[in-house]
Structure formats: C-alpha cells, structure tokens
Amino acid sequence: MSYHSIVLVKQVPDTANVTGDAMKEDGTVNRAALPAIFNPEDLHALEAALEIKDRFGGTVTVISMGPPKAGDVLRDCLYRGADRAILVSDRRAAGSDTLATSYILAQAVKTVGGYDFVFCGRQAIDGDTAQVGPQCAEKLGLPQVTYLEEILEVKDGTAVLKRNVGNGWEVVRVRLPALVTVIDTANNPRPRRAKRMMRYKFKRTALEFPADSPQLAEAKEKGDLLETWSLDDIGADLQRCGFAGSPTKVHKIQSIILTKEGSVSIEPTAEGIRAMVRELIDDRTLG
Amino acid sequence: MNNFFQDNRDIQFLFEYFDLKELAALQERQTPNGEADYLPRGLDDVIDNYRRVLELTGEIAAETLFPNAETVDAEGNTLNENQTVTYHPLVQMNLDRLAQADLMGFTLPRKYGGLNCPVLIYTMATEIVSRADCSFMNMFGLQGIADTIYAFASDEIKDATLPRFATGEVTGAMVLTEPEAGSDLQSVRLRADQKEDGSWVLNGVKRFITNGCGEILLVLARSEHEIADGRGLSLFIAERDDTVKIRHLESKLGIHGSPTCEMTFTNTPCKLIGERQRGLITYVMALMNGARLGIAAQSLGVAEAASRLAREYAASREQFGAPIEKLAPVAEMISDMRIQIEAGRALAYETARVCDIENNTNRLLERAADTLDPAEAKEMKKTSRQLKKLNSMLTPMSKFYCSEMSIRVANDAIQVMGGSGYMKDYPAERYARDARITTIYEGTSQLQVVAAIRGLTSGAFGSYLDGFETTVYEAAELEELKAKLIAARALLDEAIAQVKGMGSDYLDLSARKLVESGVVILIGHYFLGQAAKNDYKKKVASYWIATRMPLVRMNCEKAMSGNSQAIDDYLDFAGC
What we know:
The complex is a heterodimer. By secondary structure, chain A is of the alpha/beta class. In chain A, 28% of the residues lie in helices and 24% in strands. Chain A has 7 helices and 12 strands. In chain A, the strands form 2 sheets. Chain A has a 10-stranded mixed β-sheet, with helices on both faces. Chain A has a two-stranded antiparallel ribbon with strand order 2-3. In chain A, helix 2 (71-80) links the parallel strand 4 and strand 5 (84-88). The termini of chain A are far apart. By secondary structure, chain B is an alpha+beta fold. In chain B, strands 3, 4, 5, 6, 7, 8 and 9 form a 7-stranded mixed β-sheet that branches. A two-stranded antiparallel ribbon of chain B has the order 1-2. Chain B is globular and about 70 Å long. The A-B interface holds A 190-199, 201-202 and B 36-41, 48-49, 52-53, 56, 59-60, 97, 100-103, 113, 115.
C-alpha cells in the first residue's frame, strides 16, 4: 500500500539570526535585512512525508504560498526528494492572515486531490501562531494530529501517531486522510541530494521571467518551469483571500526591550520565597 | 547553518583562482554518462555544480560530522564476537548522511551514478571533511578504491560494484599491508591460487587495514608463487563474506573512528583486477598516488581545525590584561600556522590539478582514442609522459609537506592553548593525536622523500621551475620576491649537483633537506601566482619568502657540508 502526501511549506525571514537592522522603526520585521530560509519545522514535515514514502511507497507533493522567491524552498524540497512542487502565488493573496492563508492552502490541497496525508510544520518562525495547519484541517474536513513526534504505524486506512503533549506523549490512531503538524524533535531532516540539485536547480516559476519573453519560452521548452498556480487556478473565492479575507488587523506593534538592570537578593528561607512569589503574582509575572 | 566550505576564505579563493573551466572541459570530454538524468548544461553549469557539491559537503561536515567527532573519538568502533565489526552509530550516521547527499561517488562517472567531479574538487571536499572529523576521512577518502576499479577492472566488475559505491551501499578497503610487509610491499605473502575452473581464492593474513570491515576489498596477493618480488603480485577484488574474519581491531593513538583491522582470508573467492603480475607495480602504485593526495588533504583539514581552535582560544584567553594573541610569541605561532596551511593547500591543490589533467589525458588516450585526431593524440601522449614525471614528484611532495605541516600545526595549537590544550576539555589534543598518523600511513615521510628526490636529481624539478621563473609580474614587489626565489634555486641546484657526486648513501642522507628546500621554493612560486590576482596573497608571499628562504640556505649548507656522521658514527651515537 502506498500513500500520497502533501506537504505545506513556507519561506520565512531567518528570525533566529536577527542582526541590528532586523526591526524597522515601527517595530515590524524588516524582511529585506533578514535572509529568507526554509521554515525550520516545515523541513521536519517534509521529512515525515519522505519517511512515509520510503517506508510504504507513494508520492510527495509540496505546496508553498508566497512570492516568486518562495521558489527557493520548493527547489529545496525537490533536492531533498519531493516528487512535485507547486507554488501558489498571486498578488491578490497579499496581506492574508492565517484564516485567509489556510483557506488558500486548503483550496490548493483540494486541487491536488488524491492524498492520504497533509503534513505541515507546527508553526512558522515569523508569526509563531501555529494556526494555519489546524485551520486547513478544518476547512478540508480532515481529522488533525498536531505536534507529531513519531509515525508508529500506517495500515488499513489509519495511522498510529505519537504526539508530544508537552509533559509526555499521547499515542493516537487516526483515520486517513488526515492532517498532521510536525515538531522539530520528530526526525532529522535528510540533506539535499547532489544529483537532484544538479537536475532541478533550473526550475523557476514563470513569474520570475518577464511575460512572453524568449527566456520564458526557453524555460518552458526545457521543462524548467515550476508549477505555479494563481487564485483562479485553485477556484478561490477572492472575498476570502488577501486583505479582504483577513479579519486580523494589526493594531499596533510594540518593540519591547527589557531594560531592568541589577539583581534582587531573596533570603533563602520559606518566608523569603513566599515574599518573592507574592511579588511575582502582584506584577502579573505569575498567575 | 555552519558551513566548512563557505567559512573558508582560502578554499573559496582557490576555487576562483584555478582555471576550473579548463579542468571541467577535460573532465566532461567523452565521459560516460549512461542514462543519468542530471547532466550539466555547459561548462559554467559544471562549475556551478562543483560549487554546490562543496557547499553541501561543507554543510554536512559542519552540521553532522563535526559535532559527532568527539564521541566517535571517545568510543570508537566495536569488534563483535563473530569477528565482524560494527561501526560506531555516529560513524554510521555520518556515512548515511553523505550517502543520502550523493557524496559517496564523488569522482565516478555519471554512468555509475557518480558526480564526475575532478580530483581537485574531491581534494577540497576531503579537506573539508577532515576538518570536521579527521578519522572520518578514512571512510570518505576511500573513494579512490572505486576509482581504481574504474580505471583497471573489467566492465563486468565495474558494473557489479561501482553503482553500489555511488549509492553508499558499500564501502571499500585497500588490503595491502601484512605483518611482514609494511613499507616493503614487495614481500607480500597472502596467497592467491587459481582453481581448475579458472576462479581464484585468497588465503592468508593482512594487518593494519583501514576499514578492512568494508564490503569491497581490493587485495594485493601473490599469484605467482615462484616469483618472490613485486612482479609476483596481482590485485584482486573480493566481497566480504564468512570466509573473511576480522580477528583484531587495533587500539590506536588517534583516528579512533577509523576501524583498523587485522583480517584473515580462508579460501575467499575473488576476481582478478586487470592483468596478473601488475598488481603492485601498476595498480597499487596508481591507487597509492591518489591515496597520498588524499592524506595531504586530510592533513590540511586537521591542521585547519587545530589552527582555528588555537586562534579562537588566543583571542578570548586573557593574561597580563589582554588576549594572549597580543603577545608576539603567540601571534607568531598562529600566523605561521595559518601560512603553513595556505602553503600546503597551494601545493596539494596544484598537485590535484595536475593529476586531473594527467588522468583525463590518459583516459582519453585509452578509451576514446578514436575521437582524437592523430596530431592531437600525439600531443596528448607527450603531455601524459611529462605530467606523469611531474606528478610522481608533486604527489610525494604534497604528502610529505602537508603531513609534516599538520603535525607541527596541531602541536603548536596545543602550545598556544597551554594547559587547556593538553586537557581533554578541548579537541586540541585529539587533533594532535589524529594528525600524527599522516606522516606514517600511505608511505612514511621518509618514503615520500625517496620518491620526490628523483624529481630533483633528474632535472624534472628544474624544468618545472623554469616555467615559473620566466613568468613576468606587473607588480615590482612580486618581481623582487621572484628574484629571491631564483637565488634560492641557484643555491639548491648547487647543492643537488654537489650531493649527487658524493655517493648514494650521502644522497639518501641529504634527500630530505633537498626535497624540503625544493618544496618551499615551489610554494613560493605558487604564492607569487596567487599574489598576482589577490592583494592579501602578496602579504602571504612576502612572509613566506622572508621566513622560508633562510630554511633553504640552512638545508643547502647542511647538505653541502659533507658531514655524514649520522651514518658513519651510527653505532657510537646509537649505542652498540
């Protein structure tokens, strides 16, 4: 029995390596100053899908929503073993919050069809919401298993999965198709393969060429075009995409710099500890 | 993400410095591609692939091999009760990673699933891997075994083994050394007997075999029992099975991740590689040349690791109110380490480049002769002869210089770090233990000198230098430096001429001094070439010539002194 997986991946600013000019004056992320990377947990989602393919056979299709530059992460997926990569890119999708994004991705997943698993990273390091995976599952009407730690068994149309619940594990059996979000302790993502890199490095999305240019025609002829879908291609309702479909409005972003200096000594007695706890409750650090 | 290619300024420079287009053109010409679906689109693309492959190697080296190295060193591999070996789980992990990344068929043609990279790129990769874990180079570097099979075995053997090397399904071993045949491989005794049906079996013992537990074994064995010397030896290929037993895993000073095996063969079925009697004199010599360059790269890698560690320590360790790198003796040690590494790299990479031209020229002459017009074929034959001579000097020079350099650098790294360097808290002591083997295996430094001195006394070295001496540099400072190299060469020529007239014992006694002088002059010229394209390298060339030409003068003075007491008064000095 082979299984078909779809993996949702995202290109994100490398917020882990923040340098001086990473934040703008207004406290928003200065994307231009940060290198764009493969969202770390999405690599683990891809690995989970490739592991299913290695163990049982099947295919791995990767979908990313983003600007043409997001082709980088899709090429990376091809280098690591994905069979098919699709970029959903459309100016009308700009400004999408998690609700709109999950709608668009769910539409793309439906358009691909014929899947047993949808894998997502638990969350992306630029927003850290962990909402897109679960919202996709709702829109697709799929059962969802979040915080995947290990794939224990897949057979007879179900999967037995171990999920991390923070202070322990939970083993669940889920009916397929299902959506699974993956955390970074689940596996060790495989490296890119040199030969696949040599083969797929030419893949570009049509959006990266000037329209109707000879370069575009040439890329098409050589089979170098990365599948690129617009909102129309996935039958999306435009009212549910981009700014129109995004109820989340960022009211204000504050850059908080913890400035308190110095230290406080606490008496190593029961009373000293009690006093400290009271203080922490009062300033709402606790409780 | 750390990357041992991208963080290395000198390797990056050399990647740009060498004419990779010339190498790529030769490497790609008539190369068998089979059904490969990852063919390059023109030479620029080939070079882009080289860069990507090195980036991938650099990433795996830094992110997987490097963090694993300390545990692998502490725990080593395991000899099982049934006389097989289990790799340390982290060694296995390293192998799996490189195989997953398609990096175990680095130089093999695409027909067999390889990446078809030139030796120069493989040498860079070997250095990068060795910086991460010196001992793991012995697994990564064994790809030369596949190259030997490709060069000399029948199509049947090639088809049966090479694709498995490229996927990482198998690793190999060069099974040469025996208890009584170390440096003197001519006295190998392991028997190969041909049965009535024409098939061969092996019987006997081999010792100190790196990765003897590998699946594909290239075994040097005596097929002609009536011939006692090297002409009685042939090369065989055997697959590991129950007839091959590992009876001992050596306990070593360093490179603990590399399993060094003592092994027995009992009626082990095998196949002949190439022709009988050419085992040692043709095939093993070719195999060893590649392996020696590999050790040069390994030496560079471990020296790079040690010098970086020392620098990091010296910049952060404060004594007398300042980082210790502000102290002149410490600064001198670190500067000198860095320049010695760049020197070794210039020599080893140039050697690799020459090997590539030689290998590919020979390959075209042997396998694609019908595609060459007669004039070109004639020219190529001439090139092949010249390069063979040149390489038989440059390869031992590289192995000699780089390995000696690496033990000096690793030693100095400990010195820079003082007590901390001596403790197991830092890997400095591991680097020194790991580096120590490099002057010994694949031919000791003393044997490299024996091989290299021929180039100096035959005139090959002189004609090679002529090419550099006639190069004219635009920058006056480089011309001044060149004049110093020319003066040093004149002195060396005088010493060579004098020593040649003083008998073979005296030549043997002086050979190391002459070879060392030749190497530092040659490196001086390489640095000038680099300096013509890079301002930083002007500083390197200037430092090198200022600090190393006195070494030439010292060596030449010693050689011309005629003092041979080390052998004449040996019994007095060593004791009866």
